[in-house]
Amino acid sequence: MNFLKEKLSRHFFVEIIIFSALLLGFGVLLCFRQTEAVKEMMLAHDGVMVSSLLKQKISPDVIASAVSNTQDGGQGKELLAQLGYTEKTAVRFLPAVSGFEATAFQSVLSCTLAFIIILLVLCCIFLTKRERLYGQASKRISAFSEGDFSEHLPRSEEGTLYQLFASVDNLASALQAKGEAEYKAKEFLKNTISDISHQLKTPLAALSMYNEIILEEPDNPETITEFSKKTTAALERMEQLIQSLLKITRLDAGSIMFEKVPHQVSEVVEKAIENLTTRAVREEKQIIVNGQPSEQLTCDLQWTSEAVGNIVKNALDHTNSGGHIRISWERSPIMIRLKITDNGTGIAPEDIHHIFKRFYRSKNSKDTQGVGLGLSLAKSIVEGQGGTLSVQSVLNRGTTFTLCFLTEL
């Protein structure tokens, strides 16, 4: 009887019980009234019969004996049959019975009509409330179909109907989440295309200009050599930009499956800096590695080394000649911390909360290398493996990036 948990149905059920009790009470009352009517009819009939016998000079004792007699020896029934009074005699020929029938029919009809009207009123009230509830639900479901999820279906009561409303609400929530996910996916694609278009404009314009200069001076080897080098640099920048954007896009879209297996931290660091040591020597900068070689980190070697390499490259970009970048790591009971510290120019307080944004370039770093994607990519890689990447910096004194990874229990 799950429907009784619903307030509206419960009220209607109680009303039906009350109505049934009233109907039973009226039935009992009607029986008493009909019994009284039969008694009055019998007394009236006996009175008429006694009066007739008295007029015929019949002794009162004989009449009293006849009236009080409750047994019929058969002679009375035979006499009544001779007079035309049998079980088949029509009621209309029996005035007393006919009057009782009319009274009884009128009483029963009146009570039945009254109770039918009461029952119809109760049903109409119940159905009107239910129709109003259905109307509210229909209105909300129509709003759901139009993308409006600001309100919910009625869910304040228990019962089968409200369970259905709850299921529809859950479906609407799923549709809303799906719609939001699709909208975010479209916005993500639009923003990615916009970023790529915007970032490619400058190197493409430069390539076009370099090509025009080379075409205008085909007989000048020095000019051709100079702008060929610039063309090569612009192409490398474009390749770096496109590769970084594609990697970030794949990470954001969740299409990268990290292959997390135990690796020595020293192996991760070595792979990260293998292409940066030559540059450090050329720029007279030092990369110092300091940590227990045996410490292990569960991660994706390729992606994690790229994240570390991007941070080291950023440190090289912002460290002057003679500076150093120190890479160290330590284990705590629950995590491994890998720190990359430099003594470079540092990060201004107004920039430190924005450095992980895509293409963000501080006004103080316009003359440095890079396109502003390395740190954003590093953060996506680290957080994609369940780690965290944080930064601390003092302007003109240096910066420390900290990568934290939970250890396997």
Report on the structure:
This protein is α+β, with helices and mostly antiparallel strands and 409 residues long. The protein folds into 3 domains: 2-64 and 91-145; 183-252, Helix Hairpins; 259-406, 2-Layer Sandwich (Heat Shock Protein 90). 61% of the residues lie in helices and 11% in strands. It contains 10 helices and 7 strands. It has helices spanning 7-55, 60-68, 75-82, 95-145, 160-216, 221-253, 265-273, 277-282, 301-317, 374-384, and strands spanning 261-264, 286-290, 296-299, 324-331, 335-342, 388-394, 398-406. The chain has a 5-stranded mixed β-sheet with strand order 2-4-5-7-6. Helix 1 runs antiparallel to helix 4. The longest helix is centred in the middle third of the chain and has 57 residues, at 160-216. The protein is rod-shaped and about 165 Å long. The two termini are 51 Å apart.
The total beta strand count reads: 7
Tell me the count of domains: 3
What is the helix fraction of residues, given as a range? Answer: 55-70%
Q: What is the residue-mean pLDDT, rounded to a whole number?
A: 80
- What is the architecture of the largest domain at the second tier of CATH? 2-Layer Sandwich
Shape: rod-shaped
Structure annotation, total helices:
10
User: Beta-strand level of the residues, as a percent range?
Assistant: 5-15%
Uncertain regions spanning at least 5 consecutive residues = none
Largest sheet: 5 strands, mixed
Pairing-aware structural class of the strands and helices? alpha+beta
Based on CA atoms alone, the radius of gyration comes out at: 50 Å
Q: What's the arrangement of strands in the largest beta sheet?
A: 2-4-5-7-6
**If you consult CATH, what is the topology of the largest domain?**
Heat Shock Protein 90
EC number: 2.7.13.3
Transmembrane segments: 12-32, 104-127
InterPro entries: BphY/WalK/GraS-like, HATPase_C_sf, HATPase_dom, His_kinase_dom, HisK_dim/P_dom, HisK_dim/P_sf, Sig_transdc_His_kin-like_C
Catalytic activity: ATP + protein L-histidine = ADP + protein N-phospho-L-histidine
